[in-house]
Records
---
Amino acid sequence: MALETADPVLDERDQRLVAALQCDGRLTAERAGEVLGLNPRTVHRRWRAMAADGTCRVITLPARPDPVGALFLRIRVLGGRLDTLTAALAARPDIPFVDVSASGDEILAVSWTRPGTRDHLVFRELPATRAVTSVAADTVLHVFAEATHWRHAVLSDTERAALTPVRPPRPAAAPAPPDDIDRDILTALEDDARAPAAAVAARTGHPESTVRRRIARLAGSGRLLSHVVVDPRRLGLLIDANVMMRVAPGRLDTVGRTLAAHPAVHGAFATTGPSNLHAAIWVRDLDHLYRFITRDLGELGVDGTETVIVGHAVKRPGRAPDVRRR
């Protein structure tokens, strides 16, 4: 487990600019500068520089198939076969998250699956692999927070509220499904959610006025889901960990909702299995991890925990799989 990163931690200004994009992926430099007290030209220059060197990208997440559920997988692996199995899992489109424990003998992953079905990967493919010594697959019952909900805690509540777009009230009737034009626009924005309407129009062949109007409508309806891709270590968050908890059934919803709002938590969901609540967290160091477990979870009345520190984040949304040979 490395507590240092070859790339330096971003300074406070750049960290605040990353956090501003988390509030609104299509935020203008003028608005960001107004709220954060920065020159818009500086904002534009820093965003361009961070995008150019890969420090920070804003992408659009594709819509999740409906209905679809998820399994939280814990796969014990023989050390000599870890890389091969990790690469195979990371190549699958139905597995958006793959982590390797710091101990190097366990893979933690999330797999999309249809609720109530006998998952072929879990029941057939993994058990038939000689490298696998055990598989645990817990069904995700409820999602309290996902990666797109996480906000780096460097802005004040007032700043965050000023930078977050106000969506109109959700209509009583379900919104119309996206048509071919909407799908063309969303596809064009997948790799760069900040692409200007003119560039999207040129790529899709649709009129710029139509593209501009459709982007506004998609964003307002919540169909345009932007996600800021940034290495948490560049934000000074050097410890990546998964915490599995046991919580009394009557307190599960309250504890889950509380954790979803915690600044360290970038994922929280209720599951089946021996542990019924899972949290994915980023913290500065082991002291902060210790305080999270003993103080924050202790105050919530969590009955028990198991903590797995991530040694290598292999696959995360918006990042190409990083399969390393050991």
Note: DSSP finds eleven helices and ten strands in the chain.
---
Amino acid sequence: MVQPKYHVFICTSCTITGQQRGFCYNKGSVPLLQKFMEEITDRDLSGEVVVNNTGCFGICEKGPIVVVYPEGVWYGNVSEEDVERIFDEHFEGGAPVKDLMI
């Protein structure tokens, strides 16, 4: 069983029927999720960082939303350009990215 150091949840506005529509989806959360996956591969962190897509967290105006456990850090308005910082500062540096936190 995989025991990741970080478990990342990204809202992709996936409905119960599997359709993706909504604020986070429209703001680019699917390419954002893909960027997280690429970064995991590029940095060889597949055993340490696991990413899952989710449905709505209910705070759409702050989306795309990314939640990182076990700390329970919530990031808002995350863009693809923010992903490297999250990896550098949070996953590899051990300190959440304060200006992205909500």
Note: The two ends are 31 Å apart (CA to CA).
